[in-house]
Every structure is written in structure tokens, then in C-alpha cells.
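Dear colleague,

As promised, here are the two records you asked about, laid out in our usual form so they can be pasted straight into your sheet.

NAME FIELD: protein one
SEQUENCE, THEN STRUCTURE:
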Amino acid sequence: MHKYLFTNTTNHYRLTTALVFIFSFFILSTCRADPPKFADLPPVEKLPEIKELPDPFLFSDGSRVTNKADWDRRRQQIKEIIQYYEYGHIPPPPGNVTPQVLSLEFIFHKTAVKKHVLLTMGPDNNIKANLGIIKPAGSGPFPIILRNDIKIFQFPIAEELVRRGYILADYNRLDLDPDENKIVGPAQAAYPAYDWATLAVWAWGGMRAIDYLMTQDFVDKEKIVFTGHSRGGKTALLAGALDERIALTVPNGSGCGGAGCYRLEGKKCETLDAITKPTRFCYWFQPRLRTFAGFENRLPFDQHFLKALVAPRGLLTTDALGDLWANPLGTQQTYRAALPVFEFLGAPGKIGLHFREGKHDQTVDDFRALADFADLVFFGKKTSREFRKLPFPDAPLPYSWSPPKK
């Protein structure tokens, strides 16, 4: 009998110890995330040369996409490729984006409400970002145009866009990471295990603004536009490629590292080598991208891959013909190489490009083109604008591959 009691007591002790261990492990694992695991992809010297724009339908093992399920898998592979080689990996949503309304007022003869919101988020709530919102009067829901900039309330034709029925929102990307080399901003400090560079930080910040906007009843969650100019355009394209809540992505004047092209360079355009120099903007990108300077043909992707990730959601690139540094020719050619993906997914009308005369800026005409394309994609409204007109129609097709047959 004593032996029986001892045995059961021992078993009970072992069971209790095991349960305590499991419970403790569960608590620790929910309070402290495991270190992220990233794929280990080949370095530049082990990659083959691809002189034309690479085939987005081609898996890394040499097989090809044949159906929608295949494309979903290939899309995940492309996301890993661009984060590994170009932008760095971004953390998951923090799940604790908290708003604080700092100011609220009526504007435009009381036809709109202007609100300044401070967003707090991340580990220990150490990340903060200022968000400006201009909302049409009424309960909505309204489509929304989100912009990243270095200040808030920076829309040049805000009243006109509000009259057209759009909410305007912009966040200060510098709150998340300063636009300086060798500076660890608050977002990178909060997530030191991630290898993300500044463009990825800014894009992640836009996704967190969307986290908040998705909780607001006045926002039409199916009609979110994300835009930005120059480095902000690069940010917008990356966010649109990674976040499927963005219904329309509109990078403006984004050029190298954005809607432009690494392999195909127009005259006087910015190159991969120029943009990643340590004296310029190397910190925008994951350091691995710099290893492809002079070896652009070994890149296993080009910027049409980012555009392909947006499909079948909306994508419009807005640019200026006189903005040679932003590579207008390359932007056209990546558009042409991304179009087959939109066609394959049944959304050929969801991708467009708009070129105007002029220089490097996001002008009134650019915003009007954005709104016209949004009206077309969201509401089927007709427009006199031609969003598929090639500015360089004589340029040869930049690829020889064919899309899969449906």
C-alpha cells in the first residue's frame, strides 16, 4: 500500500511538474516572440545572369506557374526574395496600435473635419507616429487616400479631393526612422532582430496607420489608396506589394528602387550603384542590394516583381517625362513586364501609368490622375485619361517569356 501511494505521488509530482513547465513555456512564448527565421538565398556570385527582365512566373526550382494556386505560392516566394535582397524583412503587426486625438476642427466651410492623431505602438509602446486626417462631413464610409511624407496635412488639392468624396490621411515617416545613414530609429530599435532598412520601416509605418484606419467606421476598408512621392513613392510601392489591404497603390516619381528598373536604364537616370553608395542612400536598402552594383543582370528579380505582387489589386504609377533621374523608360518597361501578371489574374484594367510634362514633383495633375484612376477602379467612372499609353512606344519588349495559358 505504501508502495502504491509513493508511486502515485511520484507520478502526480511528475505530471504537475510537466504541466507547470508547459504553462510556463506558453506564458514565455506569448510574451516574448521567437527570433525571426529568414531564408538563406544565394549570393550574387552564385546567381545566373538574366539579361532581360526575369520571368515572374518562374519558380526558383525552374518550374513555372500554371494556375492561381501556383501564383499564390510564387507570390510568397517573391516576397521573400525582395525582402532578402532589397529591403530587409519587416516585423509582423504589433497588435497594439493606440490612437490619441491631439486636435479636431471643421474646415472647408464645415464640409470636412481635420483631425491630428498620434499613434503609439510596438514593444513597450516606444514607437510613435503622427497621422493627419481630413474627412468629408458625414458618416461615410468613404474611400481613403493615405500618403507618406515628412509632415502631415500635405495634400495640395485637399478641398477638391474631399469634394470628390475621399478621405485624406498622411503620416510622418520620419517619426519611424530618420532619413539619415547610421542612425537607428525607434522602429529599428524596437525590433533589433529584423534586418529591415529605412524604406521597409517607412512602409511598415504605413501599414500601422492602416491598422488604425481599419478600426474607423467612416473608412471604406475595401477602398484604401496608398501614395507617396520620390522616396515616398518607393515606400508606397513596397507597402502595396506586401499589404493586401491596400486596394490601389500609386507611387509617384519613385524611380530607382521604386517603379523604375535596375537592368534597363534611360539616359541620365539614377542607377543601383548610385543610389546605394555609402555617401548617398545605402541605408534605404538591405546591404545585400549593394553587392549587385555592376552585376544587375544577376538580380533574380527586377522592379516589375514588386508591381506583380500588387496584382490583382490596383496599381498606377505617376511620373514626369522630364524627370530623367527617375528613369521614365525603365518605369514603362517594368509596367510592360508586370502587365502579364495582371492579365493572368483577370485584372488587366487594374494597372496603369500616367506621364506628364515637367520635373520631379507630385503635382496637382498627378493627384487628379490618381483620383481619376481610383474613380475608375473603385466605381467604374469613365475618364478621358489614357492610362495605358506608352511614352516610349518604340522601346522593344523587355522580355521573351510568355505568361501561362489559362
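NAME FIELD: protein two
SEQUENCE, THEN STRUCTURE:
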Amino acid sequence: MYCGVTKGCALFFLKNEMPSSDATGDWLRRIGAKVSGGLVGLQHVNGSVFRRLLLSDEGVDYTLDIDATQIVAEKHEAAIAGIPESDWKTFRDGEIAETIHCMNKTDKAFRLIVLRRPREQDLFEDNGPYRYHAIASNRADEDAATTMQWYCKRGDASENRIKDLKIGFGMEHMPCGTFQANATFFAIGVLTYNLYLGFRSVVLGKEWERTQVQTVRWRLFQTAGKIVRHGRQTFLKINSTMLAVFTAIRERCARFMQEGCVMPETS
């Protein structure tokens, strides 16, 4: 089976080269320094793409995760010490309980759900028999175990996506020495990642939803093939199974483009 590629397109990819790192840095600094357009324009484009992808999503409820950072503290006066032993229930590899807690001198109370696990004993330090993990929640009408199970889902729905963005798209290191240039670079990376998520779920299908970008590159872009020239035309010869995948991708892309685009609101 053959996937046809016109001679003009083949020459386009052969003649054009990637810009140098210096040229890329100059462009990022120039775009980031623009008062209008530039970074703001990228944010509008990203918002438009994101809203369009949400229209194709079947979800109803969404959780905004601000990527909270855990800060470990050992304080004897925490609310945790007041939880009765009878309240602790078995949960996975530890025990779980909850209490009501207020921060400092405020009268705003919230649920404090605590997970404790046995601590490995240290010959030189006595830190108590347990180590604790606590989360604050305003989710009502459910028990502590249900809330903790919901919270643990962020490992797949949030933490892994942040890792995929940083490692899969090279966002773990910024290329420039100025904030605006790095912000532009990161905005492009986020836009690319959102487009990738839409491509993975809408175009590739549900069976690809848990696939990381490295696997997508390996299964699609690094597919073995052979360039064949015949009758003044250039063809890319690939496995018939992959041709079916590429044909489905083209059909889904065309169908997705026909659904219309949600433009960003303007003031």
C-alpha cells in the first residue's frame, strides 16, 4: 500500500531547515517584548483552542488543580492529635480519619482529612509511630475515604500531565535569560500540548487517551517507511496497517475542522 506525497511537498521539507538556537532566542525575545500581540496573542489563541477542545469533550464536571506543593511539618499542636483512636478506619496501606480545623485566628472552619501510615523506626530519632498526610476540603456529604480517593486521582489527571508537558515537550528548562522570552516559549509549549491532547483524544481515539507523547512519536512519527519515486511522483511506502491509521487520522481531522471554531471574546 502507498501513501502519496506530491513532489512539491517533498521538496519543501528537504529545502527548509530548523532555525538556529540564536535565531530562535532572538525571535522569542522580540515576541515577548511586544506590548500588543505577542504573548497576549498566544494566550488568546490558546484560550480559543482550549474552548474548542472542551466542546468535543464528554465531561460535565471539571476540577481546577493549581498544582499544590506539599510542605512537610512536624507540629505537636496540630489538630491531628485530637482525633480519637476510635475514629481511625483502615484505608489502603494505612488508616484514615477526619476532623474540623481552623487556620490561625480565623473562624473559617473546614474538613481536615488525615491519612496515617506506619513509620519505619529510626535508631537515633523518635518521631512517633506514624507519618501523616493531610488535605483540607470543602466537599460535603461524603466520607473521608471517598474524598481521599477523589484527591488521589490527581496523580493521573494532573501530576502525570504536568510531567508529560515538562519532559515530553521540553518545558523543564527555559532557553533564555529574560522572563518575557521564557513566558513566550512556555506559552508555545502549552499551546502545543493542548493541541496534542486534542489530537490524541479526538483524532486518535479513546484507546490513545493514556498514551504519553513519547509513545505517540514512536508509533506514528517514527514509523518505518520507504520513499519511492515513480512516474515523476514521490510516494511514501509504509505498512498497510499504519496506512489505515493515517487514513483514519485524516478523516477525523477533516470531521473535527467542520465542527466550527469558537473565537475568543473581545472587549
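A couple of things worth noting about protein two: The chain has eight helices and seven strands. The mean pLDDT is 76.

Best,
R.
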